[in-house]
Design goal:
mainly beta, globular, Lipocalin, 1 helix, 9-stranded antiparallel sheet
Length: 151
């Protein structure tokens, strides 16, 4: 049935409402929190683990804007890469420290299919290669927003 100009039929309102719900659902899918729990470990790289304890971290994610933050979320950062199977928040390798000349690499990656988290950093401390890492599982939660922009 073709509606007359300026008037909506009940069928048109149903279709418009359905389209709106689909649009809302799409928006909800793109912005969410990830509540992750697991284990924090640190120590000498390829050596003895010196610390192991429970860990929890919350990521706020907006795939449409390509932004994320974690913890107290005072600032956001750009998501480095999103694929069907992973969200790569950050991944950098072989970064030379500007003052000491030490090398480091780091990354924060969540598997979109099973929720596995890997948040790691390897770095030099004196003449020892060290690491800190959080491994765990993330669950989706409602989006709690980003900090307001100043300008």
């Amino acid at each position: 049935m073709t509606p007359t100009l300026g008037r909506q039929t009940g069928e048109d309102r149903d279709e418009a409402g359905e389209a709106g719900m689909i649009w809302q659902a799409a928006q909800t899918v793109a912005a969410f929190n990830l509540v992750c729990t697991g284990t924090y470990t640190s120590g000498q790289f390829m050596g003895r683990t010196e610390e192991r304890r429970p860990a929890a971290i919350v990521f706020r994610v907006d795939l449409d804007s390509g932004r994320w933050c974690s913890g107290d979320c005072t600032t956001t950062a750009s998501i480095q890469r999103v694929s069907e199977t992973q969200i790569v928040f950050r991944q950098r390798g072989d970064i030379m420290h500007s003052q000491s000349g030490d090398m480091t690499d780091e990354g924060t990656i969540v598997n979109r299919e099973n929720g596995e988290l890997l948040d790691r950093e390897r770095y030099w401390l004196g003449n020892q290669m060290r690491y800190r890492m959080i491994t765990g599982t993330c669950e989706r939660a409602p989006f709690s927003g980003f900090p307001a922009r100043r300008f």
